[in-house]
Amino acid sequence: MVPAGRAQSVQLETTVFRPPGPGPFPLLIVNHGKAPGNPKLQARDRFIYLATAFVRRGYAVMVPMRTGFANSTGKFVEYGCNMTANGYEQAGDIADVVRFARTQPWVDNEHIVLAGQSFGGLASMAAATQDLPGVRGIMNFAGGLKVHGDLCNWQGALVKAFGEYGRHNKLPSMWMYGANDSYFGPELVARMHGAFTAAGGKADLVAYGPFKKDAHGLLGNRDGAAVWLPEVERFLASVGMPTREVYALAEPPAQKATHYAALDDVNAVPYLPQRGREQYREFLKKATPRAFAISATGSWGWAEEGENTNEKALAACQAASKEPCRLYSVDNDIVWSAEHGTAGRN
């Protein structure tokens, strides 16, 4: 829990990843987005794929949940369609995390970079208007904040906000936005970047092509590293941060494919009622990473893209089952074996 706020009375729930040893390590601070709904109900972010890449390169990684999110204390404060104020409000927590981190003996307090995704990207760019000792640059992944519905011209408000941040910008940044981002499309991104740089801000825009169904989820997708890692390494080198891998991290054990049935053999899936088979048929249209779980009670659950799809599929299944759930299909493989049971096969 990291102290934050005007009187340091707020406690920010923070995930820390560290290489072995006492350090000091260069540091990455990753700033999360905002899911729809109550911020208190938002799950703690870990950014496991980004964190893994940085720990391999000798970095420590901190992922703080800002005020009012998840198990952080305090109340989330928002300013509606005033995007400039929304970014500045969140930037206060980021600055507090930087100050705290620089007091830790395991942090190399002269080699720090920030990354932000979605609302965290907007907040990180707002933070870059402050004096942040030790911070060398900002990585903005699909930064912004979308207002759902036609409540205001939030797009124009974002352009205005980035113009404001550009006028006061103190740190170089690298921006990454995909062509099929469902929140911030190429035309809006061009306007935001143009306003930022025209006002004096330093930002290299990486406008990459489509990524799966929605580029907004790039950082949370296992396959996203092929897109972002080369750009991240180039940016890190440009601001004097390490890029060479120095630690080997074991990959999570893969689920072993079996020959129980063909992937698209819907009738081979054990236990499921007709509606469950219809759901499995729809699941086969989903993007990878993906997982489908079943139980002997006829319950099922699935998850696609993002982090921890196996665990999420099992949890979705288990929520409706008194019997243990097991994985049936992972990505494009069947991982179910006959020893798990075949009841309900037809």
Can you walk me through this structure?
- The structure is a single chain.
- Helix content is 28%, strand content 21%.
- The chain is α/β, with parallel strands linked by helices and 346 residues long.
- A 7-stranded mixed beta sheet has the order 3-5-4-6-7-8-9, sandwiched between helices. The chain has a 4-stranded antiparallel beta sheet with strand order 11-10-12-13. A two-stranded antiparallel ribbon has the order 1-2.
- Helix 2 packs across helix 3 and helix 4 runs parallel beside helix 5.
- The termini are far apart.
* Structural class by secondary-structure content: alpha/beta
Instruction: Determine the CATH topology of the largest domain.
Output: Rossmann fold
What percent of the residues sit in helical stretches (DSSP H or I)? Answer: 25-40%
Q: What's the alpha carbon Rg, rounded to whole Å?
A: 22 Å
- What global shape is seen? globular
CATH homologous superfamily assignment of the largest domain: Alpha/Beta hydrolase fold, catalytic domain
In CATH terms, what is the architecture of the largest domain? Answer: 3-Layer(aba) Sandwich
What share of residues are in beta strands? Answer: 15-25%
Series of secondary-structure elements, N-terminal to C-terminal: EEEEHEHEHEHEHEHHEEHEE
What is the CATH class of the largest domain?
Answer: Alpha Beta
On the 0 to 100 scale, the average pLDDT is 94
Tally of separate helices: 8
Strand order of the largest sheet: 3-5-4-6-7-8-9
Any low-confidence stretches, pLDDT <50, length ≥5? Answer: none
N→C terminal distance: 53 Å
